[in-house]
Amino acid sequence: MPHIVVEYSDTLAEAFDRRAFGLALHPVVAKTVDTTVDACKTRFRRLDEAVIADGAPHHAIVHIEAAILSGRDAENKQALTAAVLEVARAHLAPVPGLAVQITVNVTDLDRAWYAKHAEVHPS
């Protein structure tokens, strides 16, 4: 926790610096929701096909789902949403001719049902 899943239009593959986004995002998320960078996980899903608006090929999307442990108040979630959006905008270069929508949704992971196991194996 947090678990972050980023879906993005394939037309943004070259313009969206995903690794830099994840590396910049983790400290921001950790500070905003009071966790550690080590707890953050970001996965990317390239969308080969998406229908946006009227379906014209000049539309593209980046959608970010950030799931955090339950118990945060509305102000904290709003701050996280704004911070994630800001970091995403900073890591997406303009693509001439594309109309890009960036969306963010913050959801709760129920503390009663969320479980984690982590191991470190010596090299």
CATH top level label: Alpha Beta
Rounded to the nearest angstrom, the radius of gyration is 16 Å
Principal-axes geometry comes out as: globular
Task: Identify the CATH homologous superfamily.
Answer: Macrophage Migration Inhibitory Factor
Number of domains: 1
Q: What's the rounded overall pLDDT mean?
A: 96
- Give the tally of β-strands: 4
Low-confidence stretches: none
CATH architecture classification name: 2-Layer Sandwich
What is the makeup of the main sheet? 4 strands, mixed
- Give the class from helix and strand content and strand pairing: alpha/beta
Major sheet: order of its strands?
2-1-3-4
Task: Please give the count of helices.
Answer: 2
CATH topology: Macrophage Migration Inhibitory Factor
Residues in β-strands, percent:
25-35%
**First-last Cα distance:** 25 Å
Pfam families: CHMI
InterPro entries: 5-COMe_2-OHmuconate_Isoase, Tautomerase/MIF_sf
Organism: Streptomyces cuspidosporus
Protein name: Isomerase
3D architecture notes:
By secondary structure, the protein is of the alpha/beta class. The protein has a single domain (3-109), classed as 2-Layer Sandwich (Macrophage Migration Inhibitory Factor). 27% of the residues lie in helices and 29% in strands. It has helices spanning 18-33, 74-90, and strands spanning 3-9, 41-47, 59-69, 99-109. It has a four-stranded mixed β-sheet with strand order 2-1-3-4. The two termini are 25 Å apart. The model has no long low-confidence stretch (mean pLDDT 96). This is Isomerase. InterPro entries: 5-COMe_2-OHmuconate_Isoase, Tautomerase/MIF_sf.
